[in-house]
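User: structure tokens for this one?
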Amino acid sequence: MRTWTRPYADPMRWFTGAIASAGTMVCLFAGLQIVTHWERIAPIQVLPVAAFFSVWLTLAWRLHRTALVVSPAGVRVRWLWATRTVPWERVDGFRTGSDWLVADRLATLDRWRAAAPPVAPPA
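Assistant:
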């Protein structure tokens, strides 16, 4: 099993984790209210609430998981919509820049060797 670690401190992780956890708690509370009062709530009224919480929780937890992580197998960049894993032998270098949330977090892979498809995440 590979262990992926962040090579930097990320103080915003506490904030994004709090937002995602609070959203989960509110969702659970709203779901409990809907279940306990199901005889007074029409199913059509539940759809907008369920859609909102589905989008909110997906975005909040994906934002919380964004990171640049490393392991002996390579480097993994988790963005909001996608994750890319590149083995070390295909990495030529890194380029860093400023980030308005966490100064140490923004590091982009400088260049990959041509014809280097990304590696699928481990199962």
